[in-house]
Amino acid sequence: xxxxxxxxxxxxxxxxxxxxxxxxxxxxxxxxxxxxxxxxxxxxxxxxxxxxxxxxxxxxxxxxxxxxxxxxxxxxxxxxxxxxxxxxxxxxxxxxxxxxxxxxxxxxxxxxxxxxxxxxxxxxxxxxxxxxxxxxxxxxxxxxxxxxxxxxxxxxxxxxxxxxxxxxxxxxxxxxxxxxxxxxxxxxxxxxxxxxxxxxxxxxxxxxxxxxxxxxxxxxxxxxxxxxxxxxxxxxxxxxxxxxxxxxxxxxxxxxxxxxxxxxxxxxxxxxxxxxxxxxxxxxxxxxxxxxxxxxxxxxxxxxxxxxxxxxxxxxxxxxxxxxxxxxxxxxxxxxxxxxxxxxx
Length: 345
Hints:
Elements: H1 2-9, H2 12-22, H3 27-56, H4 58-69, H5 71-82, H6 86-111, E1 116-117, H7 120-144, H8 152-157, H9 159-178, H10 192-215, H11 217-224, H12 228-240, H13 242-253, H14 257-282, H15 296-312, E2 317-318, H16 320-340
Helix pairs in contact: 2-3, 2-10, 3-4, 3-10, 3-13, 4-13, 4-14, 5-6, 5-10, 5-14, 6-12, 6-13, 6-14, 6-15, 6-16, 7-9, 7-14, 7-15, 9-14, 12-16, 13-14, 15-16
């Protein structure tokens, strides 16, 4: 019954797009409808990724989900760059890293099998990459804590760390794919071609819905009396990564903890090492290029989340109480984000 409801609710996505074009239902209702529409799309991406992983193994399956799932995040960031909203871009990207490795991983631990075996080596390596990204981002961030964080000198200073992050991602991904685990049983579900095709369609719809949601966020922000920073760091980050969020949780609930944890951690690593530098470098095609001058609270949150999760997964086992702990830490960070206010405010 639940699966039938999810399949039927996929109709909400085209309905949302149609209403956005032909009807004037108001920005706040449109925001809520967009958010609800992302739930079945997230489930569909998780479903198709799990079928793809039957052919590719958990490592590549997690990479596929992270890649398709981060497409909306990339699109949202470029939309914000085009609208000259650099603080929204940086906060949403930082929030994406934090929410994936704390909220999503925590939810996977809670809903998945207790004391399940994890791919410790892969997870620790990727968390190390996130920590490395944070260190590199300090290069343009620290000068940005004084004077104008969007000044030309910081735009140029950001190119170096962005190039290093991109190169590091390509090298580590190539090495990781060479040692990727292969399926041990014959795939019983969808064909690989069908799984990837569904992933692609669901990702396109997710990107379109995410754009509608972002454009309705301002009205929701005014109605909820929230700061721009909080909305970007929490709401936009979660919405932009709805695919990984929902997909990882669904897969964990189905008992495939290795794939679920790969999705959560690899998504954060991919945001830090691929999405962040791509957005920064592509932004030079826009009127206002993006600097990688993150706020102290953004850098601290990303670094602390990576180190804390590395400590949790060091034994290569998942435990339900650790999931509650991870979600609790994320909740504490959200409270801090709520009181942080906007930059320079």
